[in-house]
């Protein structure tokens, strides 16, 4: 028999026992749905967190030193370490603003446009634009504000902030954009300004940088870059080797991402084990149904053998029925899994859960969006086919070995 004929016969047989077939594949549907739902949610959590950290999260290196670093130091460091694509520093300040009967704390970060791109702040821009290099060089009084600051500055969360001005330290700054920085509440707000603007309007006479961040090149060994950074900073600042560990601190988001991957993998293995039990139960149900089908269709098997069907044809017929049953369950389970994943993601969003807070990594403002991966769908369908073949083989072989004469006598 051709594959098309086998499929047609399989569908006809399953259609004749529709209710029993649906109940039989329930275990397969539950197992596959669990695998797909958890895989897509875990992938969505990972992607959302990394997106909240910034597109270059794994390549970002944070550099701290007990001796203050200045712009000359980071220029020397960039020259000595070609593994860095860029090294940027910030000048941070603080301001307190009285808004009616409320006091608003404003954290001010003086950073270049390159810094915003490196650290992902630019990618979290919800409205407007970031400032340009020309605006930074001219010390323009422009700013980006965190979304939670809109209500404090302009009266309502939905107010149009872009193009308006805010007052800090008695000076007016034009809002160029709004950043989803994950901050909540109305008593604190992040504000980003050009580096030179902060030095001009909020500087207190110091020349050292508040923070230093490096962007490692693609393919660079992050751990090696970190170690080399510690050594080079030590040389630049004249720090003795026995003091390096206590005076210089260099770390990257890669370690956090690796920890996140480990956590996600552990959780995925647990869910995979639970889903595997469901699939095993479903496979046993498939075998039980196929054995029942063989018993109910003994006379049909005898007629087919009398008409010239070989044992191999009978085996293929029942294997095709089993595989069709499981693939149908796999498809239904895949659709149900993604529906469950989107439903949980929507529910989490409606309840205001933040990915960073949910995983203990701090607020990132990242939304939970399930990751639909073609590979997961292929694996789900493949597992369904394997289950159908493995658990359908014994009933199929049993049907093929029945004696044709005894089958025709069967009542």
Automatic annotation (TrEMBL):
Alphabetized InterPro entries for the sequence: ABC3_permease_C (IPR003838), MacB_PCD (IPR025857), Macrolide_Exporter_MacB (IPR050250)
The keyword Transmembrane helix is assigned to this record: yes
A molecular function GO annotation: transmembrane transporter activity
Keyword annotations of the record: Cell membrane, Membrane, Transmembrane, Transmembrane helix
GO CC annotations, alphabetized: plasma membrane
Annotated transmembrane regions: 21-43, 269-291, 325-351, 371-394
Record-annotated ABC3 transporter permease C-terminal domain positions: 273-404
Membrane topology: Multi-pass membrane protein
Compartments, as annotated in UniProt: Cell membrane
Domain MacB-like periplasmic core residues, every copy: 21-229
Keyword Transmembrane (UniProt): yes
Coiled-coil stretches noted in the UniProt entry, renumbered to this chain: none
Annotated family: Belongs to the ABC-4 integral membrane protein family.
Database matches in PANTHER family: ABC TRANSPORTER PERMEASE YTRF (PTHR30572:SF4), MEMBRANE COMPONENT OF TRANSPORTER-RELATED (PTHR30572)
Protein name per UniProt: Efflux ABC transporter, permease protein
